[in-house]
Amino acid sequence: MRRLWTRRLVALSAIAASALAATPTVASASRSDGAVAARTGHGRAPGTVVLDGARLMRIRQRLATRPDRRLRTALGALTRAADAELRAGPWSVMDKATTVSADEHDYYSLATYWWPSEPKTPDNPYGCPFVQHDGHWAPDVATTGDLPTLHKSWTAISDLSLAWFYTRRPAYARRAALDIRTWFLDPATRMNPNMDYAQAIPCGANPQGRNYGIIESAQAITQVIDALAILDSGAPGWKARDRAGIRDWLGRFLDWMQTSPFGQAESATKNNHGTFKDLQDAAIALYIGRTDLAKQLIVGAEAKRIDPQIAADGSQPGELSRTRPWHYANFNAQAFCRLADTARRVGVDLWSYTAPNGGSIPKAIDFLIPAAEKGADAWPYPDLDVFDRSLVVDKLHAAATEANDGRARAALPHVPTPQGGDRWPVEPTCWQDLSQPPLQK
Fold it and tell me: Which CATH architecture group holds 1-113+140-268?
């Protein structure tokens, strides 16, 4: 275990100075003189990867001319989150207090379901050896290393960028740019472009991460990619050198994902890990112009992901066998939803694809409808989690919109709204956050 106090204070001082120089107040962000787009709808469609840039333009125009209650409510939920994020952060991998890496710029987190088996002592600070308790978050996972700050930073980058796109309030864009520079670009605070120490088991003489830790970037980086594309469309405070820097960082990150033993092992997994890994790599490849790689991954997902993972009735056997099957069935369906939305960029229609056994992405979502409407009594699988029917909401929206799925459309009024609101009207893809520690029985 390495403690980082001195260099951490230097990095945090640099962050604080940048934040003071760059961050307006929430009040200034809310002034109407910044809300140009809400009146004009001008600008070019962003080259987003998962979100449809042309659809975002239409939504912005509706907000300016004829917003209905659902649209106003969704925008309010988004801007409330963005307003809070103006006051928080910026975040960095240098925020962590300890790591097992020799380089504190390496991302570091603990294995989610692995628990210490001994009391923690000065000679055994982690309580090694660790033992697995599948489905149960270990007590220190949500507070140790970089996982908590990655979630806050990457969520804020997404919220702030999209809030700027709809409102044209400069404070949102400038703060998103600061958060990006702090996490990815500034030499004092940036993350190295690898996941070598993600989901580590910090025991033994030379502890390493595991390929499974890649899920921590894969399930969130698509939101960052689309935020970058939104800022590229003309955001104040987002400069050419920022765009060049992040494209270089993402290129090196993608190279690591494609060539490292961990990256290749994660690509070989046959459940949600593999689906999200293909999604992540395809999205990065599209953003940085490696379209051939993106199309290879997306076309390959038919035989490699959909065919073996979705049964004829829409069930996902690899996810239903887990100790948290409701979460994992929704989680993998979320990855499929984003992958199908991304596939549009290369002319592939995964929403209409049917596997030889009859399985499809819309069927995987329809399989969840009885339990989403009726609750745990309609879910016949043992499950550690308190049943949250709202996990499926964005997938229902997506199936109804993208696949013209009447069952999904009919189910929506009978499913509770997620905590934080239903933001589909302004975020029309499967962006719901399913990454947080679960409430369990």
Answer: Alpha/alpha barrel (1.50)
